[in-house]
Structure formats: structure tokens, C-alpha cells
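User: Hey, my collaborator sent me this sequence without any context and asked if I could get a structure. I don't really work with proteins. Can you help?
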Amino acid sequence: EGPESYPPLRNEAAVRVLQGRMKGIQGHCNSCYMDAALFSLFSCTSVLDSMLFMPFPLCDRNVQGILRDEIVNPLRRTGFVRASSVMHLREQLTDKGQCSSFTNAEKDPEEFLNLIMQQILGIEPLLKLQSGGQKEHECYCYQIFMDKQEDLVVPDVQQLVERSFLSSDLKLVEIPSCFIIQMPRFGKEYKMFSKIIPSLELDITDLLLDSPRECCLCGDVATLECS
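Assistant: No problem. I've predicted the 3D structure and written it out in C-alpha cell form, which is a compact way to encode the shape of the chain:
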């Protein structure tokens, strides 16, 4: 008999199970970067459930089991995960990683995702990006980098991704199976935006390399692109 699985929460069930006090993933000892990442990746979507079940070539089954049985399943079943469960995962990451501070320090979510996806589970990169026509590079998530823009007071995710890709001269080489996006910095010292509106759908038509698009003047297939 295989490991238990609980489907991600959707619609009314998501509201019923996840709303209210003592819901979500309990924070402890600078765990917010990991709590937020895990909640985003697993609470309401199954797109990365292969991380919980697939026997990847490099897969550490112990870490995979903790992630599935102590974090994702309780989150989907009861809407709550204890801080001790996340600490159990952090201790394992400290053992497996090159870094000794996963149990106590504030980290960048990208560092956590790279460690667990690449080194511990051995998953293929999710994104292929190309910058300025140069060689393509692969990664697991995309962090939005941009200068402060006065006209964006309360932006949505669509606007941020488009402007970030434009300012870095980036394109997606192919449609990603999963597009993990890290929002601009929101730390103790510096907040770029006080609020960001989630875009429930993301239009990546203009972000794709060599994707046919229509001319904004005549409506035919465009042959030139103006940034």
C-alpha cells in the first residue's frame, strides 16, 4: 500500500479549511520564507505533487516523506501545520545541504527551492529562460527584479512579471509546466510595494520566445517586436 494522499483544496473547501485563526503553517524561528513557499506550492494546487510521490533518481525518500506526511497532507486535511513539523524538515535540509543555518536563519525562498528540488529530490528545472538572445539557462523559479516604478502603486502580478521580463530583456524559451514566481523584496528594512494584487491567470503570450503574435496596428501576424 502506497503513501496516503490528500487532494489540494479548491473553491468552498479551501475557504472552509484554510480560513480563520490557527490555520496555515505555524511560523517559528525565521521560518516565514519556507512556510510561505510550501503553502503556495501545495495548499491549493497539485502541479508539484510529483515532488511528494515520484522516486526521482537522486530522491531522498526521508525528506520526501516528511514533506508529504508531516506538512502537505496535514495542511490539506486540517488546514494547519505545526511549527515542529517544519522544523523537522529544516533539520533534514541542514543535514543534506551545504548550509548549517536552515534551522534558525532567514533565507531566500529560492535557496530553499533549489536545495529541495535540485539536490534533495533531483527534479529537472521547471523554467528555461533566454536573456538578450544569449544562451538559455534553466532554473526552478523566477524572482521579480525591477526598479521602483512611480506609476505602479498597487500592481498586479501580470504587470510585475511583464515589466521585470522587459527590463531584463528576458523570454521564456518554452511554456513552463509550472511557473513559480517570487515577488519583489518585502523584508524588515525595505518594502517595494505595500500590496500586490494576485493575478488569477497569467498571460505569457508576450513573454514567449518566437511565439506568433498579432501586429497591434494591422492585426496580421507580427514580424517585428518593439519593446
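In plain terms: The radius of gyration is 19 Å. You can pass these C-alpha cells on to your collaborator as they are.
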